[in-house]
Amino acid sequence: MKKYLLNQIAIGIDEDVSLLKTLAAKTLGINLTDIYTIKIVRKSIDARRKGRIQLVYSLCVETSSKVDLSVAGTKEIFEPTESKLIEGTSELRGMTVVVGSGPAGLFAALELARQGYNPLVIERGECVEKRTKKVEAFWLGGELDLDTNTQFGEGGAGTFSDGKLTTRIGDPLSETVLQQFVKAGASKEILFDAKPHIGSDVLKYVIPNIRKEIEKLGGVFKFNTKLTDLKVTNSEIKAIKINSVEWIDVGAVVLAIGHSARDTFEILLNRGMDISQKAFSVGVRIEHPQELIDKAQYGNFAGHPAIGAADYQLFTRGGERTAYTFCMCPGGEVVAADSEYEGLVTNGMSQSNRALANANSAFVVAVRPNDFADKSPLSGVYFQRQIEQKAYKLGNGAAPIQKLGDFITDKVSNSKGLVKTSYTRATECVKMDEVFPVFVCAKMREAIPDFENKLKGFAFSDALLIAPETRTSSPIRMNREDDGTAISIAGLYPAGEGAGYAGGIMSAAIDGIKAARKIISKYRRT
Q1: What residues contact residue 396 under an 8 Å CB cut-off, 6+ apart?
Q2: What pLDDT digit, counting tens, does each position of 335-358 carry?
Q3: DSSP string of 457-487?
Q4: What tens digit of pLDDT does each residue of 157-207 get?
Q5: CATH code 3.50.50.60 region(s) in the chain
Q6: Which CATH superfamily is domain 95-275+474-522 in?
Q7: N or C end of the chain: smaller count of CB under 10 Å?
Q8: Residue 402 and residue 499: Cα distance in Å, rounded?
Q9: Which CATH architecture has domain 2-71?
Q10: Alpha helix segments (H runs only) across 342-425
């Protein structure tokens, strides 16, 4: 019995998926009854011809029949054999600790727990169940909690997002992460969808299930527990301080603190961590009617249940900077993502069904270290903060908002237009030019005609801009040695988005697994 991969097997959006088996047999030149198993490996939508939208599949077919491998798009699959992890020999002279319970922290802890290292996971915010209540209260106008909010708490910033699982890194561990999410309650469709997503509503159940598995394997979670100091002796981490009160002796620490842990960045810099500036992007959230995006992408098939809400990804390069759309949320909502007093931040989120009236996306411009005020490793943080505080001040605590047509002509909107924003906290009509540095708005205006050419309707004059989107990625990089440890601090393993090595749920989770494996390969279990 052998397995074969078939690519580019297409069916119409009104055709039944059972047709795939017939097409697979025809492609391989074998009888239908010769197929032992058939599995969807990948599913995507081909909407290049609006009058003939198709669903395109890659299939894994198992058969004992002889197959002609000269058939285009067909190849034999050889199952990879993963090498067994070999436990290290160095002595662990303290606890194994994971700081942060976002994707990097959770998957690092899961890997460590499976190998018997009984990690302690500390998280400055609440567990998902309590966190959700606090965040939703804030979205309805309540007070900000500095440690439990859209950025901090179990699951990290990704908990209140679309739950996208796409990644460009092409790492074999991607399958490991997807399988774990399915085991914890996510839909099996994420295993083959070309653009997999979980949805914020489902993530709130999936994340606690991963936590429970870690606990079952011997891991321990402490919420409302913040890293406030660390002790480094002879270039090796010896202890961490939590909540400014208790010291814990540590042998190995995975530092998975997320891209918004600015107070922790300060502590790490003061304790000798090698930190460098890193590029990121800033801009706005843009909201369109989802119906408009569906029409632009799918024509007369807009709204068809087989293809769902349409998304988009736009990019333009010209001159010295790029502008692009990022973290697009079909049928989603714009949410308040503040984590500091008197500073505004926005983000996008979708539920699993992506069924709300508006589409939203980050519309951002690249920022480089030479845009910062100085060479300080944290200068990018100060750049972000300045924008966030200016937005808060201009709107008197309300999020700046402007119609796209008024942004193009550089005037304050006199109304909020035809698109009713999904943002639930207060908004105020403000010129975006007053929020951002000149180069940001100039590049956005330059990009709009190109985006309109690529996506008809993007330049809809009543589309709404809501500011600011500043937390696209970490503004720093915690520099690492080849063995995964922080430069000059043995035993400390920076990982994920906050460390500057990931850009989303998938890449962060993978980086967390790799950090855990570095620990396992160096230290023996106590």
Answers
A1: 428
A2: 999 999 999 999 999 999 999 999
A3: TTT-TT-EEEEEE--SS-SEEE-B-TTSSBT
A4: 999 988 889 876 678 899 999 999 999 999 999 999 989 999 999 999 999
A5: 95-275+474-522
A6: FAD/NAD(P)-binding domain (3.50.50.60)
A7: N
A8: 34
A9: 2-Layer Sandwich (3.30)
A10: 379-394, 404-409
